[in-house]
## 1
Amino acid sequence: MRIELEKRPKVSTLFSVLSPFIAFALTIVFGGIMFALLGKNPVTALYSFFVEPLSEVWSLHELAIKAAPLILIGVGLSVCFRSNNWNIGAEGQFIMGAIAGSILPVVFYDWQSPVVLPLMMLFGMIGGALFAAVPAFLKAHMNTNEILTSLMLVYVAQLFLDWLVRGPWRNPQGMNFPETRTFGADAILPEMIASGRTHWGFAFAIVAAVLVWFMMRYTLRGFEITVLGQSARAGRFAGFSSRKMIWFSMLFSGALAGLAGIAEVSGAIQQLRPVISPGYGFTAIIVAFLGRLNPLGIVAAGLVLALTYLGGEAAQLSIGVSERVTRVFQGLLLFFVLSCDTLIHYRIRLVWERFAATKTEEAH
Amino acid sequence: MGIVEAILLSVITAATPLVLAAAGELVAERSGVLNLGVEGMMIMGAVSAFAATQITGSPYIGVLAGIGAGVLFALLFGFLTLTLVANQVATGLALTLLGLGVSGMLGEGFLGMQGIKLQPITIPLLSQVPFLGPLLFRQDAIFYLSIAVVAGIHWFLFRSRAGLKLRAVGDSHASAHALGVDVVRTRYLAVLFGGACAGLAGAQLSLVYTPQWVENMSAGRGWIALALVVFASWRPWRVVAGGYLFGAVSISQLHAQAFGIGIPSQFLSSLPYLATIIVLILISHNRRMTLINTPASLGKPFVPDR
């Protein structure tokens, strides 16, 4: 048996809508098989993984808290990926944003003022953007592959954070724990709704998604991103500069990742620790693709992937599977998303050798 | 054994997985496929090798299991990018994310276990040579394999007909296809070979370098291997030079940490990653040279027209 692809005359609208859903369904099926192999009842396991976390008010708040950074980063990455710039170092930009944003509440902890919080958010964005500026500069002016440089910088950022919280920024009253002071009241991103912990980071994410959606759909910049992504040559004829686009897309996604970082630290953790992210920057890559690089799709995809984090925690408590299944689910999901995207551009035909032989004979 | 030999020995041990993984990726890239999933294949190799060794008691079966896991993951990558023509960059990332996830699950039961080390094989006579003998001829099987693999790749690419075809596929898949070369088949084989090498590199990590299972123990080595291929301008022996250079950087930072020279350990630990970036800049800032060296069809999808 062979698989043959036949190019569709036109991009299939049906499958561009359906493909993320098919991918999600396949992930559920494979997840069920995996649970069965682990000796669990797949139905109860999947229920506790995907449904239980949605059944209570507090866990819906947790969902929004986890979705906020995923959506913020994912929206930024969609601009990068659409313009063919492969920033995969969002995890590092997230961390550097968190660090830059924490300068005020950690170093100038005495300063209490209503302007502290907006300044922190601004610093976070600048920190993330500056860290993304390194691979941007290297790609635009030194011709260096941004995939490798942005990824290497993730390790550097993680080690830098580790040094800060164990060294100069360690809480002097913290009994030697590797963490900073807890932030003062003016440095904490407030809760959005009275019923639970969801902080304003979620609102930032939704606003960013809507703004990027608008930019991509109605502005020249959005058109430029699409054109340069599909063909740098065509973009040059239209007078667009690939080099400027590298700068724009990298700084933009870096700033959003940095904002996600400081919003997470200020809203959810309220201090810096050696590890502040369960891999949000990498999971956001999956979010971007599951959302088909469409900002509104990314909002939905961010909620789905946030659910896998909660599901992992829930499944560990209720059926005793390790929390590590989360990352397996996330990986599987990306695989199925990428496979199903083939359906958008191609018809897939299964060819059995005998059939194929008779067919070619007929053709002769 | 003197201190110099001890240091050189540790450099070799640190360099071997980099050389292996980079050599395998080099073949895949020469055929025009950019597989960014080296890290994922490597970590799967590490966990499978460790698990198989614990279960059977034989590190050699562990080595085979590591290679098998790498090949299996490479097959997954091949199916997506070559059969379903999915985006190579995204699929490579998916392979890495999936590998890190699956290895974490599989390895859970093996955390903290005492590993079984792959024992060195002493080569008679040659191992008696002063200085070089103990360094190069009292090594484990994976080290010997790493050198043999590089020599084999060099011969294959530049001295054999099949290697010429493989390079043709990587430089222009349309022309190679027109000349009757089966592009997809060639690329599948190259990708699977890359997977085998990455899996073997992973096995080295969990059976030789640190004989135990630690989550995420590949620690970015798969990515460094990818950078090494660029550094080596897609030439096999330069991969060895680059691999040993990186091995030396990572070992010297470890020794510097042990001596406590007053620089925070985190800064020293980030040296191999910074060195990778610097090397990439030095190698690629000359646009024309990069263009000449890079396989022209690298990363471009191919759908045979029928």
Note: Chain A touches chain B through 46 residues (CB under 8 Å).
## 2
Amino acid sequence: MADVPVGILAGTPSQTEARSQWQLVLRRFLAHRLAVAAGVVLVAAYLFSYLAEPLTGWGYKDLSPDLSQGPSGDHWFGTDTIGHDMFAQSMRGLRVSVHVSVVVAAIATVMGSVLGAVQGWFRGRVDGALGLLVDFLLILPLLPVLMVLGTRTRASGGSSLMFVAVIIGLFLWAPLARVVRGEVFSIREKEYIEAAEALGASNTRIIFRHLIPNVMSSIIVYATLTVATAILLETALAFLGFGIQPPEVSLGSLVDEGRDAARTRWWLFYLPGAVLVVLVLCVNFMGDGLRDALDPRREQRR
Amino acid sequence: MSSPADLPVETTPLLEVTDLVKDFPIRSKGAIRRTVGMVQAVNGVSLHINRGETLGLVGESGSGKSTIARCILRLIQPTSGSVRFKGQELAGLSRRQLQAMRRNMQIVYQDPMASLDPRMTVSAIISEPLRIHRTTGDIGARVGELLELVGLRPEHGNRYPHEFSGGQRQRIGIARALALEPDLLILDEPVSALDVSIQAGVLNLLEDLQRQLGLTYLFVAHDLSVVRHISDRVAVMYLGRIVETGTGPEVYETPAHPYTQALLSAVPIPDPKLEKRRRRIVLEGDAPNPASPPSGCRFRTRCWKAESICTEYDPELLDLGIGHPVACHFPTPDDLMGSEQG
């Protein structure tokens, strides 16, 4: 046999152990230091937000007699004008922002990738009809629409948090769909897609097993951007008085409330702001790590 | 080879292609995409392959050989013509019927890197046909078997295609094509993308597999010497037509079409004395634009024998006393080695 002897690639026994694809992905992710650090910070911060009340003794709704005080041993992030403990509020806000953005990103990412892939794969009329919807969503001024829908949350009260998240999610999938559609247009011409057709693969199989995995890096990058967008969009809604209603807080609403005090009582603006920045940064770093881990070809370049 | 000769079934060829035509429309740019012309990639091709044999389909780039392969598998829709597999017409089959047919016909591509999904492990790639067709039994064990069959190790299943060399990747492609135990394997330039040293290994593997599994091959290539090595019969294509067809010895030793002669004269001979003595035919110019093929015989623009009849009448693929069918008005069996050979 003139081919390369098969033993050459076999390597050491440890390398030839059976490993599932996801174990490999995990291994590559763990090799990405910054992403792991960001992930650890993210998880730690999220879990810590549950410990805030037992640790400091202040809940996010509690009003203390200390009004407008700077950071101290008792109030780590200071207090606002009416005596809210800003640390308790920031931690509550972190949790709410994480919940909202995860739901938004999940909805937008799943819808965007599936619908984008469907457009790119079927082309023709399907592409045309969905493309029209995408165009419509893209030109729609999002904020006014969300405000109108947001008025409903005030009326309904109760489950408003998830309602806001779902609504934002339903409006944020369009840009991803467009990106995925474009990439699928190029990938569909690849020979391995034709090979799958030749094997008799169904449309569903081609879309979910071949097309979407091959645009996964874009999807993940986009999902992390969506998390950031969702946090900021929810912020804007909260600022305008829609979406999340007091006494519920989110990082967005805290930053917006503290904005006027940025020069005088800096802690009201900069401390929740710092939590927000750290949160968004961590999400982005994790996105980088995931993208690298999910693309087997990247490993060679390191 | 695979079955005893006394079976009456063998009288119908495994694959029979009749008058296959494939036109690709050329569309103008802009919002209104009018069809401004047609590229005739395949223009009335008929061929058949008997069970257990190998048909080599040879031609230069753009001669339509890969288009034929894809039309047979219905990966592209033929414009007209019939494709019969085991006597059953494939045109007009529903999607589901087609899926069932695809169990029996598989394809190995030219570029193994492009034809293997980079996101899938080798095991996932090879087991995909088994999962699609819901075969029963231990898929993992079958994948290991297939890997060993093509000369790889079962442990290699956990790796990704990019971790392999070109020859190994092609073996993976072959394993995938064999997973469903197809009757017919279409090999679309399976060794053209490989180093010469590795080509032999893959060709030998293909021959071994044919003997072991009783496979039937349609071997598409642009390299006559590669085809000679493996084919029982050969069909030479030029610009969407078959210009000469016959058994290996017929085509290689007594080529009658000028194009075949020119092709064969370009194949190097590993003997310097013979190499010096033989006649070289160097064709001038490129193949004509398939969107506007020449009138009459398609080869006449580059043929040294062309006369006025060639401009007017398109020669049919007929046996005019040569011993095998040739599409030429002036077929002369040519001994490229000259008379000294005898």
Note: Residues 1-9, 338-342 of chain B have pLDDT under 50 and may be disordered.
